[in-house]
Design brief:
Length: 291
């Protein structure tokens, strides 16, 4: 709790990070200050600020947290039971559009494993046991951190997609549908006479962007494994297909020896390799034409 408040700067941020209520954080900090007989934070209108005493110990507290996680991971790695908790983190679209049948079969085969599926776009810390197994897209030609045990499974490509009937005469021109950090393409223009609206539309997450493309709002860059298999979408003629990065399956060096971790990794590896052509943008539906 001390580290969460020190890093977040407020009780609210710490409570959200640790998924507890505000009162729990306040009581925890109070007990720590009472135990050490010193004030660790100044309570300001804008939040909590470390005192000199708090600043003196924050690095040591971080070392304690790291050591605690390492102890837990080391013990977890010796666990050869096909039961108990197992946390798996992966992108939302991988869970909903690729791996849910695999995870359902895994649960049926090993009902004593208490799985927690953390499907989100945020990156969790495997070293701190925030998850046991992670499926991630590592952008560019980078490699995962050295403290993780990783296996590269396949490539990950994106393309530009549009609703099949969007090239027909319309009173409203289609818009560029962009993610929060994306920009309007400047190195190519849509073919077949599509005139784009001057103002793009931005989305905070990819699922809404996909639904907007399906509804005919405009052109969107989407993972090929989503855009290529949807009968309502087609790649924009002349648009590039981009290699964003590679899909890696990652575990911590200690926890990877746990039997239930190895079982899940085997299942996920086999499933993702079966999707490799789709993820690389080599799924050919033979229908890249407008109505």
């Amino acid at each position: 709790m001390f580290l969460a408040v020190a890093e977040g700067g407020t009780v609210r941020a710490a409570a959200e990070a640790l998924e507890v209520n505000h009162a729990t954080i306040i009581r925890g900090i109070g007990r720590l200050e009472e135990k050490l007989n010193t004030k660790l934070f100044e309570k300001l209108p804008t939040g909590y600020r470390l005192t000199d005493a708090g600043s003196d110990i924050v690095e040591l507290a971080g070392q304690m947290a790291t050591a605690s996680s390492q102890i837990e991971a080391r013990i977890f790695g010796r666990d050869q039971d096909v039961s108990g908790p197992l946390r798996f983190t992966l992108p939302i679209s991988f869970a909903t559009d690729l791996l849910m049948p695999t995870l359902t079969a895994f649960r049926a085969n090993y009902p004593e494993i208490a799985m927690e599926i953390l499907s989100s776009g945020s990156v969790v810390n495997l070293g701190n046991r925030e998850a046991d197994v992670a499926l991630r897209v590592v952008v560019g030609r980078a490699s995962p951190p050295e403290n993780l045990y990783g296996k590269k499974l396949c490539e990950f490509h994106t393309g530009f997609y549009i609703a099949r009937n969007l090239a027909a005469p319309r009173s409203i021109p289609p818009a560029w549908l962009l993610g929060s950090n994306e920009t309007v393409p400047t190195d190519w223009e849509p073919e077949v006479g599509i005139k784009m609206a001057p103002m793009p539309i931005r989305f905070a997450e990819m699922r809404s962007q996909l639904e907007a493309a399906l509804a005919g709002m405009g052109i969107s860059a989407l993972p090929c494994f989503l855009g290529d298999v949807d009968p309502l979408l087609v790649r924009v003629p002349g648009a590039p297909v981009t290699h964003i990065g590679d899909v890696w399956l990652l575990t911590h060096g200690d926890t990877r020896r746990t039997k239930r971790v190895r079982l899940l990794c085997d299942e996920v590896c086999n499933a993702m390799r079966g999707f490799a052509e789709r993820l690389a943008g080599r799924f050919d539906d033979g229908a890249a034409e407008f109505l």
